[in-house]
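sry for the spam today, last one i promise. struct tokens for design, 147 residues
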């Protein structure tokens, strides 16, 4: 029997999350004229240009981190988190994503959400590259390596 990996499909939760991310990106652009890319936000905390830059970036990052606590307060239970890979694989994946974000001048949230919405050619190419690489990786892991 073939080893099948089950992927949960949550269209309503995904739609809601996507709408909130889009609304946050639009709000940040309207209020501060800034693009909401996670890599750029974190980089600006590590190396802030000035105090006002640090403040909004820290507030946004704090909001991202405290999201599970808000879910807990609203529902009475923490969101279930499943990480189906080992710690070494997480570390390797993190390094690869970091290198990709560095060489790609941004991350999936910056290019995929904000750059695509602004019809940035660079972001369109970057997002297509992310998607093609993701599809190829899933194919190799599931069908070639059999994991």
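last one done:
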């Amino acid at each position: 029997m073939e080893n099948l990996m089950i992927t949960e499909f949550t269209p309503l939760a995904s739609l809601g999350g996507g709408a909130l991310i889009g609304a946050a990106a639009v709000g940040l652009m309207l209020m501060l004229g800034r693009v909401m890319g996670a890599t750029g936000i974190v980089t600006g905390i590590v190396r802030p240009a000035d105090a006002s830059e640090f403040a909004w970036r820290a507030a946004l990052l704090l909001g991202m981190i405290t999201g599970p606590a808000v879910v807990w307060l609203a529902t009475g239970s923490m969101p279930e988190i499943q990480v189906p890979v080992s710690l070494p694989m997480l570390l390797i994946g993190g390094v690869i994503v970091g290198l990709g974000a560095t060489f790609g001048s941004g991350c999936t949230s910056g290019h995929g959400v904000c750059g695509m919405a602004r019809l940035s050619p660079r972001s369109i190419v970057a997002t297509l590259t992310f998607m093609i690489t993701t599809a190829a990786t899933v194919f190799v892991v599931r069908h070639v390596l059999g994991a």
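The chain has seven helices and no strands. ok im logging off now
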